[in-house]
């Protein structure tokens, strides 16, 4: 309802909006959660329209949304981040100017400690993905590693929306890894097994996110064969023969990074106890293909007792 109301008001009530906004601002400090939620939702949707920029309301509304980040109500904090993310649609030309402030808000949202269902973190990740293309590269690079490390646990969340949003955001972050390439390469390796296994995720939207993230990671991996495989086989409109694909992926991995064998195996062992049956089945297959394609000398490093017992 807030979206429909704001859309109509943005189109037809432009000249009256400054007074409406002025009269609503005090309710952001109301003792009633319902009033703060309603006003924040209204402002968040209004920021989706360029009319706030035309009427010189953007800075006022942005400051008020930023001020809601410490609100006691989770829903208010979540809606405030949505509003800040909506600036990417309503006033994209102003995102760069306020980039550092917007980025700090999103990072604070991901670090929200009083968010048991991760609603604030989910909104922060979704909104940051919308803002990224409009932010200064230097602002993003200063926070790149912190964000990548912070979102990594969400790749395996029980909530599909958290898996999808965190993986999409990770894919978008890789665009800014130049200049931080070696350090960010570590983050790609840390997430690689998870992204490849979640190509077998039970939720199609998560599979789609993994395809996107792996296509984005490819150019940063320093292996042309692997990059080509991700680009050619992980297109959204193309079905995937998973076993054949993983066989070839492992061949390229062991040709280019044989020293990573143990690390890749240990990460896969973690998924032997996955709640998702297809991922549980994919992990031992992944290990089998890795061992198949590694040199005999390198294979001596593998702890067979650990591998056979499936302990990690």
Précis, in short:
This is MROH1 protein. It contains 19 helices and no strands.
Please write out the topology.
Layout: H1 2-12, H2 17-24, H3 33-46, H4 51-54, H5 58-67, H6 74-90, H7 92-95, H8 99-110, H9 119-131, H10 137-151, H11 160-173, H12 181-197, H13 204-217, H14 224-233, H15 242-256, H16 261-270, H17 277-293, H18 296-299, H19 304-309
Helix pairs in contact: 1-3, 3-6, 5-6, 6-8, 6-9, 8-9, 8-10, 9-11, 10-11, 11-13, 12-13, 14-15, 15-17, 16-17
Provide structural commentary:
- With 312 residues, the protein is mainly α.
- The protein folds into two domains: 1-135, Leucine-rich Repeat Variant (Alpha Horseshoe); 171-311, no CATH class.
- 69% of the residues lie in helices and 0% in strands.
- Helix 3 (33-46) runs parallel beside helix 6 (74-90), helix 6 (74-90) runs antiparallel to helix 8 (99-110) and helix 8 runs antiparallel to helix 9.
- The longest helix has 17 residues, at 74-90.
- The chain is elongated.
- The mean pLDDT is 89.
- This is MROH1 protein.
- Residues 63-309 form the Maestro/Maestro-like HEAT-repeats domain.
- It holds the Pfam family HEAT_MROH2B_C.
- InterPro entries: ARM-like, ARM-type_fold, HEAT_Maestro, Maestro_heat-like_prot.
Global mean pLDDT: 89
Helices and strands, in order, run as HHHHHHHHHHHHHHHHHHH
Mind describing the biggest β-sheet? none
Enumerate how many helices there are, as a single number: 19
Structural class: mainly alpha
**Overall domain count:** 2
Strand content: under 5%
